Amino acid sequence: MSRDEGRGVDRRQALECMIWAGTGVLWTVAGGVPKSALLGTAQAAESGFAFLQISDSHVGFDKPANPNALGTLNEAIDKIVALPAKPAFMIHTGDISHLSKPKQFDDADQTIGRAKLDVHYVPGEHDLIDEDNGKAYLERYGKNAKGAGWYSFDQQGVHFIGLVNVVNLKAGGMGNLGPEQLAWLADDLKDKSASTPIVVFAHIPLWTVAPEWGWGTDDSAQALALLKRFGSVTVLNGHIHQLMQKVEGQVSFYTARSTAFPQPKPGAAPSPGPMTVPAGELRKYLGVRSVVYHPTGEPLAVTDAALAG
Amino acid sequence: MRTLAKPSALKGAINAAALTAALLVAPVASALDDSKVTIDNFAFTPNVITVKPGAVVTFENHDDIPHSIVDAAGKFHSKALDTNDTFQVTFDQPGEYNYYCGLHSHMRGKVIVAP
């Protein structure tokens, strides 16, 4: 589970302490000493910064699990707008739309735009099902991207890599990065020093969560091999509409909540389809993630806040 | 092989979003051998179906999540099928056709065409 546990800090307790907006208190761990700070001041700490992750907004989804996915995305953005300090940027880990329709992308853009943040996207499989197999996505979100939409950028010494693992899927397989993207990744990383903190984000988990549901990426081991020499690697994914985390060596993996609807835990349902919960419970399963980086050599501090409850 | 989309006059019950593909040139009049594969809970049912040459197989998605039908050999593929959308393929040539979902590739099925 959490690497925090070994340091005498119970991560769940820390999360319970945190209230997302307004009077928000954010717990981070630096040098083994837990510190709390107002969310805004944590972000403003010297050389550090905060960014947000949202995922799986599925704009256009209107089935019983959430008849108004645009509405709950709006609520997520409301929380972001209410933050006392502005994060550096936001990432969206895919399934922006439900069916890649122009109106769904338009509605998503208009809503997410209210946050007034730079947003770095990677596509989910739901974003590439237009008539031209992803042209609509690339025209809208992929202007500076390579291939099917992958790219990298730097923020205050942290190297961010957005990967695409939802194209050219093989029969019987899971997510797929493909040789072209892996070659690009090797090239992208080759001049980076091992002390550069790396954040990788992609839609489908880059570790195998549930192969029977396709929750993994067939060739992720090749990507992780390229990342092995780095001292700090944080991997942020979506797709499975629930929180999970795992630490393997220097690599910390996290999946995010959706802003639209939850999906069952692996094996807890006949299929990974949308999970309908009592109407009053839905917002406990949806949420927004904040990630804070401090140049201390410690893992990035990941905090998840549900829309309610 | 190119996937040919054309409306099916014999399939009045199919909604307007239905997609029809013909494998080779085949009149839909051979619809006597019609067979249906439904998608429920991220699975094709029946998972393996045997039909006679010329049969029209209709795929219908009952899930809340879109799925697609992609032939592993590249001979046909559907668009993403939203809830209750259908896709038809006419199978003229005997053989085994392995297909999967283009969005969730762990979902697989097979059509066996035998005289």
Question: Please, could you describe this protein's structure?
Answer:
Chain A has 309 residues and is an alpha/beta fold. Chain A has a single domain (51-306), classed as 4-Layer Sandwich (Purple Acid Phosphatase, chain A, domain 2), CATH 3.60.21. Chain A has helices at 11-17, 39-44, 69-81, 102-113, 135-141, 179-189, 220-227, and strands spanning 25-30, 33-38, 49-54, 90-92, 119-121, 151-155, 158-162, 198-202, 233-237, 244-248, 251-255, 287-293, 301-306. In chain A, strands 6-7-8-9-11-10 form a 6-stranded mixed β-sheet, with no helix packed on it. The longest helix of chain A is centred in the N-terminal third of the chain and has 13 residues, at 69-81. The radius of gyration of chain A is 18 Å and the shape is globular. The two termini of chain A are 23 Å apart. The model of chain A is unreliable at 1-44 (pLDDT under 50). By secondary structure, chain B is mostly beta strands. Chain B has a single domain, classed as Immunoglobulin-like. Chain B is 0% helix and 40% strand. Chain B has no helices and 10 strands. Chain B has strands at residues 4-5, 19-22, 35-40, 43-45, 48-51, 55-61, 70-71, 86-91, 95-100, 108-113. In chain B, the strands form 2 sheets. In chain B, strands 1-2-8-6-3-4 form a 6-stranded mixed β-sheet, with no helix packed on it. In chain B, strand 9 (95-100) and strand 10 (108-113) form a beta hairpin.
Q: Do you know the CATH architecture of chain B? A: Sandwich
Task: State the assembly state of the protein chains.
Answer: heterodimer
Largest interface: A-B, 26 and 24 residues
CATH-defined architecture of chain A: 4-Layer Sandwich
**Silhouette of chain A:** globular
**Which secondary-structure class do the elements of chain B indicate?**
mainly beta
Kindly state the number of beta strands of chain A. 13
Unreliable segments of 5+ consecutive residues of chain A = 1-44
The strand line-up of the biggest sheet of chain B is: 1-2-8-6-3-4
CATH superfamily of chain A: Metallo-dependent phosphatases
Number of domains of chain B: 1
Q: How much is the radius of gyration of chain A in Å? A: 18 Å
Q: Remind me, CATH topology of chain B?
A: Immunoglobulin-like
H/E series of chain A, N to C?
HEEHEHEHEHEEHEHEEEEE
Strand content of chain A: 15-25%
Low-confidence stretches of chain B: 1-20, 24-33
Mean pLDDT of chain B: 81
* Average residue-wise pLDDT of chain A: 88
What's the total count of β strands of chain B? 10
